[in-house]
Each structure stands twice: as C-alpha cells, then as structure tokens.
Write a structure and sequence with these properties.
Helix 5 (93-117) packs across helix 7 (134-169) and helix 6 runs antiparallel to helix 7 (134-169). This protein starts with a helix and ends with a helix. It has a single domain (2-219), classed as MetI-like (MetI-like fold), CATH 1.10.3720.10. The chain is built from 9 helices and no strands. With 221 residues, the protein is an all-alpha fold. It is elongated and about 65 Å long. It has helices at 2-44, 54-69, 72-78, 80-87, 93-117, 121-129, 134-169, 175-185, 190-219. The protein is 84% helix and 0% strand. The longest helix has 43 residues, at 2-44. Belongs to the binding-protein-dependent transport system permease family. CysTW subfamily. Residues 17-211 form the ABC transmembrane type-1 domain. It is a multi-pass membrane protein. This is D-methionine transport system permease protein. It is found in: Cell membrane.
Length: 221
C-alpha cells in the first residue's frame, strides 16, 4: 500500500513539475517576444531617444504601468473571458499561461528599457554620424550592448513567473502550486507541502544560476 502511495506521489510530483516548467517556459518566452520590442519602443520614444515622441511614450507607458500594477491574482480572474477564448477553458496549465504571459510582457518591457538606458549614448551618436538607420542602431548597438542587462532581467522575470505559477495553481492552474494546495493543505499532508517548497527552491536556484552564467559569458565577450 505504502509503495503504491509513494509511486503515486512521485508521479504527481513529476507531472506537476513538468506543468510548472511548461507554464514558466512558455509564458516567459512569449512574454519576452512581446516585452523586448515593447521595451525598445519605450526607450526609442522616450526623452532623448532617437524616435522621441512623448505622447506615444506616455500612452504606451501608462498601459504598461497599469498592467504591472495589477495584482496577479486579480489579473488572473479579470481576464478569464479572454483566457476562455484563447484556450477554451479557465483552468489548467494552458489557461494559466495566458495571465502569466500578460504579467511577464510589461515586466520584461520595463527591464529592457532600463537596460537600454545604460548603453553609452555616445555609441548611438557615433552610429548616427556614420549614417546608421534606426533598425541598425537597435540591432547592432543597443541590443548587443544591453544584452547582459536584458538577460539579467529575463532571469528575474522567470523567477517571478515561478512564484506566480504556484499562485495560479491555487485556483486550478496546475503545477506544483496546485499539488501543494490539494495535498499539502487540503488533505493535511505537511510533508507534501514541504517537498513542494523544496522543489520550487531548487527550480528557482537553477534558473538564477543559469541566468548568472549567461550574464557572465556575455559580459566577458
């Protein structure tokens, strides 16, 4: 009996870990694909940017700030109609990816914008003096120079998404959070809750270590 129970719990842990990995990886990837261009736009249109446009910058920046300032649990519930349209359901791993992505994109955008601010403006001016186009400045100057900061920002985003994915699990999103709530809390199995916390700690440490390694490699090019 105990062997069967242990095997069942190991299978649940493996499934839940995979669901968490999928949620974090997919939402992080899509969030980066949306957030990086958005961050570049915010930097280019900001005061002193090469495409300075205060109206566009303030408008887009206001939307980004509004989404960022919305608590994740509220966003999770508020966009249930959108989630159902996109995934056909409001529960499960696929459904959780939608609010996680919407949370990640503006977060990434602001971190990318901050990283781009650190690029020496003299490099941009030098590229402009040589006749470089805006796209050339972005792809050959701004992004390469800011890449260590961007990778550090993406690492922070993935760590944050891990915590949010556990929160999503509390209301049916699947993953380790769901496992901890259903078995650790509702069924009074503290060992399961402790194991979930330990697995999440290791998971976050692995993400942070990989991100730090990538930043060091890019910084020493």
């Amino acid at each position: 009996m105990f062997d069967n129970l242990s095997a069942m719990m190991l299978e649940l842990f493996a499934t839940s870990l995979w669901e968490t990995l999928v949620m974090v990886a997919v939402s992080g990837l899509v969030g980066a694909l949306l957030g990086i261009p958005l961050g570049v736009f915010l930097r280019l249109t900001d005061q002193g940017g090469i495409l300075e446009n205060r109206l566009f910058n303030k408008t887009v920046g206001g939307v980004v700030n509004a989404v960022r300032s919305t608590p994740f649990i509220i966003l999770l519930v508020a966009i249930i109609p959108l989630t159902r349209v996109l995934t056909g359901s409001s529960i499960g791993t696929a459904a959780a990816i939608v609010p996680l992505t919407l949370t990640a994109a503006p977060f990434v955008a602001r971190l990318v914008e901050a990283a781009l601010r650190e690029v020496d403006h003299g490099l941009v001016e030098a590229a402009q003096s040589m006749g470089a186009t805006t796209s050339q400045i972005v792809y050959k100057v701004l992004l390469p120079e800011a890449m260590p900061g961007i990778i550090a920002g993406l690492t922070i985003t993935l760590v944050s998404l891990t915590g949010y994915s556990a929160m999503a699990g509390a209301i049916g999103g699947g993953g380790l959070g769901d496992l901890g709530i259903r078995y650790g809390y509702q069924r009074f199995l503290p060992d399961v809750m402790l194991a979930v916390v330990l697995v999440l700690i290791v998971f976050v440490q692995a993400i942070q270590s990989l991100g730090d390694w990538a930043v060091r490699r890019l910084s020493h090019r």
